[in-house]
Amino acid sequence: DAGAALGALTDLLKDDEVQQAVSTFVDRKLRETPAAPGLARVLELAVDGDRHQEVLSAGLSGLAEFLADNRLVFRARLGDASPAWVPDWVDDKVFDRVFELLRGFLAEVGADADHPVRQVYDRRLRSYVRKLRTDPETAARVEQFKAEVLDHPAVRTWSGSLWTTAKNGVVTAAADPDSELRTRVVGLIRSGAQLLQTDPTVRELVQRQFRRGAGWAVERFAADAADLVGTTVARWDTEETSRRIELQVGRDLQWIRVNGTVVGGLAGLVIYTVAQLLS
């Protein structure tokens, strides 16, 4: 059963060791991979498709909603900062005027695709993309920011939980007969088995790769295996080992001894008889 096999395979792995290995591997790969070229590529894709303007529009819309939702808060802050001798109705007029101008400006930029603010934003973003590719200082700042993010406890916790999350997902999917993972695994196994049965070329390729892999494993690990066996045998106690062997194969050894005695005796008797007849 493919589901049981997947579950058994994950159970064989020690969570602590695998989790540490996965966390270390992910952290090392992220630190080794330069962040600036990747960020530059993402921004290039956004600029080429005018996605950056859509992001700006969404940001302007969100800012306008934020101002509207917190209008009373901003008015109260203005009242606190205004001199005591200024009448409240003056503060109201000043606040309403500034607030409406700000909201109108945000709406104007959001509605005009050719607004000067959008053009400046586009030029600055394209310039930043070029710096990411050509300016070492800009790339270094990005790398420093990446290192700070990777060193954050929340990120370390996330990377450490990758194995547990993946394992739980595999086990859950493997236990579900209708899961996509289980269906795909079963399909791959069946397709592979059918291909090996019907295609001699693939069968020969697989056999050749297995032979090559076995040869590599023997060449690579033969000395280690010999050392392991030798070290293990050297630690055995002679009397204890003899006793264990006797317990495991004692009856067979006794049978061999009896057979040897009987056969040897008969052979000796035959030889003696022949010698007497010939003398």
UniProtKB/TrEMBL annotation:
Q: Write out the transmembrane intervals.
A: none
State the species of origin.
Modestobacter versicolor
Q: Organism's domain of life? A: Bacteria
InterPro entries in UniProt: DUF445 (IPR007383)
GO cellular component annotations, sorted alphabetically? plasma membrane
Name the chain's protein: DUF445 domain-containing protein
